[in-house]
Amino acid sequence: TIKTKIGVISDLHYTHPSLIVEKGAALENYLSNDRKLLVESEAILKETVANLLEENV
User: Per residue of the chain (57 residues), what is the pLDDT tens digit?
Assistant: First the structure.
């Protein structure tokens, strides 16, 4: 019997760090009114993928 694990990551709201050109008042204002963790999204994605790989998913 072959067991297969499938991991699904959805609704990422991933923002590549190069797209956040300048951190300042405008970005802080936007982020304070938005629940997405845009600045942290790369770290969150990397950690999630690492966890899935660690679990052989």
Answer: 888 899 999 988 888 888 888 888 988 898 899 888 888 999 999 999 999 999 998
- Distance, in Å, from the CA atom of 53 to the CA atom of 5, rounded to the nearest integer, reads 11
Q: Which residues contact 48 (CB under 8 A, 6 or more apart)?
A: 9
Which pair of structure tokens corresponds to residue 34? 């938005």
Q: Which residues of 19-39 are buried (b: 16+ CB within 10 A; e: fewer)?
A: eeeeeeeeeeeeeeeeeeebe
Structure tokens at 18: 């190069």
